[in-house]
Amino acid sequence: MKHFDQPATREPLDFARLVPALRAAFAAKAQVPPRHVHAIETAGADKGTVLIMPAWSDAGFLGIKTINIFPGNSARGLPGLHATYVLYDARTGVPLAMMDGNELTARRTAAASALGASFLARADARRLLVLGTGRVARLLPAAHASVRPIDEVLVWNHRPEGAQALAAQWRAEGFNARAATGLEAAVRQADIVSCATLATAPLVRGEWLAPGSHLDLIGSFTPAMREADVRCFEGARTFVDTTEALQKAGELLDAIAAGTLRADEVQGTLAALCRGECAGRAGREERTVFKAVGSALEDLAAATLVWQHAESIPA
């Protein structure tokens, strides 16, 4: 059984390779059971959530990710998410590899965000606004720049110093980036608004979104979490990564309860987009929304890339 630490997991997962791999995985068929979700409560500690996410495919691989989410970690100076991934031979059950689940999760989440935008954002979308400064948020400019001509990046965070530090990091990486001091003004100017936070109250308001903009919601994954208000879905064409989002995403549940979105109005999933079973953006002025809660299929596709890259290296 091989072990892939963070650098070894990261190396094969550049977005020019990972986004097309996710597109191929969604277009193909795989078995992805519903995730197991467990609330963790211990005396004197913050509440956490454990997700167990399996998937397997005819390509011969089986993967299981365990992911621990503890939002209170930010006060301790720790990431809010820790994950491990085990890849198996699907034909024999033999363990093949243990991989850094944090790196895998962050990169496949950013890649899925970019994959959604490749169908739903305007072809000339160039101004990206990122909400959040965590592990996933840090990857979003590179991910979106692999599918759209991004030449200006803004970042907003509830802690301004965090946004300023991340903007400086992006500038060092070659992006034209700056921290946004006002969220409303930044949203109004953006072609793509990408939210990667653990927010439990809406951050983005529908009346701020410009005609032709694309709203990307990839942070929340439980009914108690939400990054956008109900008006964000009013008059927009809404897509999801998987149908599981309709049961898991607080934004969607709120919008359905408020009547600004009906479940049967959701336009399609990533699989339907990748297979050409539904159309993406239909016009320059329409607003689009992509809501993702994550899929074990994405993890399996990314882990398979890591494994195949290692196997291709001469001993």
Structure, described:
- By secondary structure, the protein is of the alpha/beta class.
- Helix content is 31%, strand content 24%.
- The protein has helices at 6-10, 15-27, 101-120, 140-145, 160-172, 183-189, 245-248, 250-258, 270-274, 296-312; strands at 2-4, 30-31, 36-40, 48-57, 61-69, 81-89, 95-100, 127-131, 152-156, 177-179, 192-195, 214-217, 236-240, 268-269, 287-291.
- Helix 2 (15-27) packs across helix 10.
Which labels suit this protein?
315 residues; alpha/beta; 8-stranded parallel β-sheet; 7-stranded mixed β-sheet; ornithine cyclodeaminase activity; oxidoreductase activity
Relative helix content: 25-40%
Beta-strand content estimate: 15-25%
First-last Cα distance: 16 Å
Q: What topology, given as strand order, has the largest sheet?
A: 10-9-8-11-12-15-13-14
Q: For the CA atoms, what is the radius of gyration?
A: 19 Å
From N to C, what is the helix and strand string?
Answer: EHHEEEEEEHEHEHEHEEEHHEHEH
**How many beta-strand segments?**
15
Estimate the mean pLDDT confidence: 94
Rough outline? globular
- Poorly predicted residue ranges: none
Task: Give the number of helices.
Answer: 10
Q: What kind of sheet is the major sheet?
A: 8 strands, parallel
The structural class is: alpha/beta
Organism: Variovorax paradoxus
GO molecular function, one term: oxidoreductase activity
EC number: 4.3.1.12
Family: Belongs to the ornithine cyclodeaminase/mu-crystallin family.
